[in-house]
Amino acid sequence: MWKQILGKLPRKSQKSDSDSPRNPSPGPNSSSDGGPAAKKASAAVFPACVIAGIKPLLAFKDVPSSEKMNLFISKLSLCCVVFDFTDPMKNVQEKELKRATLLELLDFVSQSPQKFTEPAILASCKMCSVNLFRVFPPSTRSSSSSSGDNDNDDEPTFDPAWSHLQIVYDFLLKFVTSPSLETKVAKKYINCAFIVRIIDLFDSEDPRERDCLKAILHRVYGKFMVHRPFIRKCMSSVFYRFVFETEKHNGIAELLEIFGSVITGFALPLKEEHKIFLSRVLIPLHKPKSLAVYFQQLSYCVNQFIEKEPKLAGCVIKGLLKYWPVTNSQKEVMFLGQLEEILEIINMAEFQKVMVPLFWRLGHCINSYHFQVAERALFLWNNDQVVNLIAHNRQVIVPIVFPALERNAEHHWNQAVLNLTLNVKRMLAEMDDTLIVACIANYKEDQARKKSEVERRKEVWERLENAASLQPVTGRTAVLVSLV
After folding, report:
1. Which pTM does this prediction carry?
2. What are the tens digits of pLDDT across the range 309-320?
3. Orientation of helix 415-431 relative to helix 433-470, angle to 10°
């Protein structure tokens, strides 16, 4: 189609064509001056794109206002041709002509024209669907990620067709946000199927495309209220598939960022649907190994829920303890950071429900041989809100964490962790010296009891060895052989 247009447009000379094959053909604005022959050829080549005698290569300024919408539809039909960008030398002039037409369409939509007619809305959605909705090739990162490499170290992958895709995304964003677009009419074409395809595009490896999609989906959610429950359901499906099936998706961070702004608009009290989303989607999202990629957005969403309804803090902490990464030190540090944020906004009643399992886990973190985990756990005592919670419940909390502090003080290998441990012990002693003295006595008794149990177990084994060595070996009697 594009080659036919370019072949029938007037050219300067045959020599100039052969000398500059990569030069684009005249733009849409200049094509109207090609003479009657060019106009006749254009009409013959584009019978489906000509509406009421309007040629798609005319400029908007060259037609009366009553015909601009028809020209708009014609140009949209013209841009439904998709080119192959894997070969940069292929269809160079056609690509440039399409890009110029897309820019003209974008400029037209940006000027807030008269209200879009239903055929114009249909043509706009069709053009965006043809250009944007596509199947992504197999991921180039699949082999490296399966071999254990860190996805954070991979270079982003850029789509070679971005010179066209970017303009189409900008067009769609301007189109959706335009005051000339009536929601009642547009919802028939920006429907559930269209939204599903938009959300599928979030798996693109190109970060520029995901940023454009983020802005578009956010505007669609805000403008089309009828589609809001469906959008949330589709996003939940993506999260479910990511957590429980594939653990591979490129757009989790962007989808969570959209949902973070959605949560701020939730009315109080929260619906049961939203609480289920927190417990079944957001909390399990802490499980995948790639948590670091979207941790900031996930933490923001969780904190938004707790600020909306403080009673959910206990549920969140229990969920974090359930998915605690005991074998991943990097994730442990992130979990500890999120716990501190939650403890800053939790109320006393919810804190008392979870403080025993919480500080039992913190005690294990304090004794971690990974110095960053131990340091991050001890840094909690630098937070005034956390210290205040501990002070009000010290009779329960201090006996749980004090043995871990004593073990650190006795034989932890890292000097920074030792210094922090001594500072925390000093702080607890200033908080309640009598309780610390009792904890020290209990710790010594416990250590003496453990030592006596070890000695008694050793004596039992020695008696068994001696008794076995005195018995004569007859028949199939088992023999204890000493390797010393």
Report:
1. 0.78
2. 999 999 999 999
3. 120
